[in-house]
Each structure stands twice: as structure tokens, then as C-alpha cells.
Amino acid sequence: MLTRQAEDYLKTIYEIERDGDAAATTAIATRLGIAPASVSGMVRRLARQGLVAVERYRGARLTARGRRVALQMIRRHRILESYLVTRLGFGWDGVHEEAERLEHAASADLIDRMAAALGNPDVDPHGAPIPRTDGSVDDTRLRTLDDLAVGSPARVARMSDRDPALLRYLGELGIRPGVTLRLVDRAPFEGPLTVAVGRARHVIGSAVARKVYVR
């Protein structure tokens, strides 16, 4: 049995590794909002349990066992978000914290029953892929809206669930998973982008565009 804190660490290390590098102590501390000294102790404990391997001067990487646990937690989180939105009427901007609290207590059987009741969805309300029961997941790296060339159309694939204000803002602009949009113009020197969503045009900052992933 793992503590809630250990499960959160494994999820965080997975998310950092997904971006292509080992999870440095400072990166883990920043994501979890805690002191780097606290991270070092927990990483050592996870290593003793065979859940992570520590690379000197680089950081922690999940072992095969650690990856299975991390994906199990991510599966729980994303199915809970899907159930809260689809069946209980929560807004997509208000489910992350609820799912964070529930994921540590929900049994695998409860999660599987929720998934079945939803028709075993492939993605959550924010477009993030839901890991399957066998531990596989389609976590292909995607381009962001900020990567598009002017004139290029794209379909919105996903966005982070961590910032409710950002999700509300994107929802007001009609930017959600599955929506097709087009980059109309880009101001120079990190200037704002003009995006066409249907017949509407919106001007958004590069910082926002980098948080919208597209295909």
C-alpha cells in the first residue's frame, strides 16, 4: 500500500518524464509546491521500494512497476473527471480538485464500473487519454496551438485540467477538444495570435496558445 503522497509523486514523475527527461528534484518540487529537500527524501524512499531509479545529476525515472502505479492513478483521475462531468453535471473547469481527492480512495472495481457506465471512453473531458486496464495509453506528444504556421487548420486535442480559470476562458472562446480552428495571424516578437473558431475570431496570448494541444 502506498501513501497518497507517494502516489502523487509517481504521477508527477510520470508527467515530467513524458516531456522527455528524467524528473529533477527542482521540477518535482515546483509541480507539487513543496521544498526540494522534502522531495529528495521521498524519492529515496520510492527508490528503495523499487518504484523509481535515480540517475545521478539528472533525476528520477519510473521503473516498470512505478509506471504501472502512476498510470493506474492517472486512469482513476481521468475516469473520475469523466464521470463527474458526464453523469453528475460538474463543469469541466471544476473537476480536477474533486478527482484529486477521490482518486486515492476509489477502488479499481469502482473505477472499472464507472468506466463501463460511461462506455469506456478513450479520453477525459479535457481530451487527455485515459490509460487502459492493461496499463497501455496513447500518450503521443502533440504540437501546441503556438506551433502552428499562419493559415494552418488544426483540431483541438487536449488541454491541461489544472487551471480552472484557463478552462473557463477557453470555454468562452469555444476552444474545446474536438473543435477545429485555424491560425489566422501571429504578431511578431511573441505577440498575440489571432485564431478563427468557426465564424468567430479571437486574439489570444502565446502563453495560452502553448497550453492548447492540437492535431
Mean pLDDT across all amino acids: 94
Question: How does the overall form come out from the CA principal axes?
Answer: globular
The level-1 CATH class of the largest domain: Mainly Beta
Uncertain runs with pLDDT below 50, 5 residues or more? none
The total number of structural domains is 3
Helicity range of the residues?
Answer: 40-55%
In CATH, the homologous superfamily of the largest domain goes by the name: Ferrous iron transport protein A (FeoA)
- Outline the biggest β-sheet: 6 strands, antiparallel
SSE order, as H and E?
HHHEEHHHEEHEEEHE
Strand residue content = 15-25%
CATH architecture assignment of the largest domain: Roll
Number of strands: 8
Terminal-residue CA separation: 39 Å
Structural class: alpha+beta
Fold topology:
Blueprint: H1 4-18, H2 25-32, H3 36-48, E1 52-55, E2 59-62, H4 64-86, H5 96-102, H6 108-117, E3 143-144, E4 153-159, H7 164-173, E5 180-186, E6 193-197, E7 200-204, H8 206-209, E8 212-214
Antiparallel strand pairs: 1-2, 3-8, 4-5, 4-8, 5-6, 6-7
Question: Which key phrases capture this entry?
Answer:
single chain; 215 residues; alpha+beta; Arc Repressor Mutant, subunit A; SH3 type barrels; 3 domains; six-stranded antiparallel β-sheet; two-stranded antiparallel ribbon; 42% helix; 17% strand; globular
Protein model, in words:
With 215 residues, the chain is an alpha+beta fold. The chain has helices at 4-18, 25-32, 36-48, 64-86, 96-102, 108-117, 164-173, 206-209; strands spanning 52-55, 59-62, 143-144, 153-159, 180-186, 193-197, 200-204, 212-214. The protein folds into three domains: 4-62, Arc Repressor Mutant, subunit A; 75-139, Winged helix-like DNA-binding domain superfamily/Winged helix DNA-binding domain (Arc Repressor Mutant, subunit A), CATH 1.10.10.10; 143-214, Ferrous iron transport protein A (FeoA) (SH3 type barrels, Roll), CATH 2.30.30. A six-stranded antiparallel sheet has the order 3-8-4-5-6-7. Strand 5 (180-186) and strand 6 (193-197) form a beta hairpin. Helix 1 crosses helix 2 (25-32). The model has no long low-confidence stretch (mean pLDDT 94).
